[in-house]
Amino acid sequence: MNDAIVSESVKTKWYALCEALGLKDDEGAISHWWSVVHGAYSGTDRYFYDLNHVASMLQLVEQYRTYFKDIVAVKLAAFFHAVVYDPTRRRGNNNDLAEPFFTWNRAMGQPLELCRAEMIATWIQRISPDWRAARPWPREEYDKDLELLKDISKAAQASPRLEYELYTAALRREHANLGEARWCQYRIRSLKQTQRFYGSELFLSKEEAAAANARREVRALRAMLWRGHYLPAMAAAALLPLASGADPLGGRGPALAGVPAVPMVARAGLVAGVAARAARWLLLDRTFVRYPYPHAPPHGGGARGAVVFAASFNPPHLGHLH
């Protein structure tokens, strides 16, 4: 869809949301904050988390609106969830992710009471692409809203193949600061750490499509790692003995023309590094299998009171219990 049409559509929904909160644009405050939101999602470094993403989320929120208890709060979280977004961010305070929302609430005269504003801030943090750690929210009656909102924010994971490839290409452009090998490792780790992509009952039917996309992407990323990183390094390690005048079997042979001798320590270090990477791939990456058994349904009538334990105690996982 044309960017101008998307922008106008999202803008209309922004004004309608502010109107639902009883806000008026007498002094241009609503217009100002639309400019702030629009500017954040229209940055030159936004390729996936842009206005198209916000529009898609709002469309799904409308589609499932009868399942939400606080539709206004959900829409506010959708608008603000990626206003703060920096793919280069390694560590930081999760409170920063919701700071624009709190600033907006204060600037508009606090139309949301503190308790409700805190709840929305938690939702923003939990669905933010920059979210780093859990912040529990004790009010159980809002859990289903957050659960469904999180699934909506990750809806692209279950897209048809072509759309999914466009999605991952957009994510790669947003992480252009990472080299090819680092990106492959980062993305594989992100996909492997996800035991199940969706938590709400409404998205359970999309789980297999999301998992299939993840498996296909991981295979492609591993192949890219081997072609562009591991195999060249192993080839270089195999040629290093020749560079010093020795053959790979330990005898003496002619050195490669024009290649300077390489110190033994450097050769040993490179060979050890390649061996360690190959061992990691064989022991961890290649042997990884998503949980093959079905998970218990999150809201099962007959499963109430049931407890499911899943544990791993093999050395690579350092032991963990869910």
Structure description:
The protein is mainly alpha-helical and about 325 residues long. About 55% of the residues lie in helices and about 0% in strands. Strands 1-2 form a two-stranded antiparallel ribbon. A hairpin with a 7-residue loop joins strand 1 and strand 2. Helix 4 (about 70-80) crosses helix 6, helix 9 (about 180-190) runs antiparallel to helix 10 and helix 10 runs antiparallel to helix 11.
Topology:
Elements: H1 3-20, H2 29-41, H3 51-63, H4 71-80, H5 99-107, H6 114-127, H7 143-153, H8 161-174, H9 180-192, H10 207-243, H11 264-285, E1 311-312, E2 320-321
Antiparallel strand pairs: 1-2
Helix pairs in contact: 1-2, 1-3, 3-4, 4-6, 9-10, 10-11
Q: Write down the Rg.
A: 25 Å
- How helix-rich are the residues, as a percent range? 40-55%
Strand content: under 5%
**Which regions have little confidence, pLDDT < 50, spanning 5+ residues?**
134-142, 287-302, 315-320
Q: How many strands in all?
A: 2
Overall pLDDT score:
80
Strand order of the largest sheet: 1-2
Q: Tell me the span between the first and last alpha carbons.
A: 43 Å
Largest sheet data: 2 strands, antiparallel
Taken in chain order, the helices and strands follow as HHHHHHHHHHHEE
Tally the helices.
Answer: 11
Structural class category: mainly alpha
Task: Please tell me what the overall shape is.
Answer: elongated
Tags for this model:
54% helix; mainly alpha; single chain; disordered C terminus; elongated; two-stranded antiparallel sheet; 322 residues
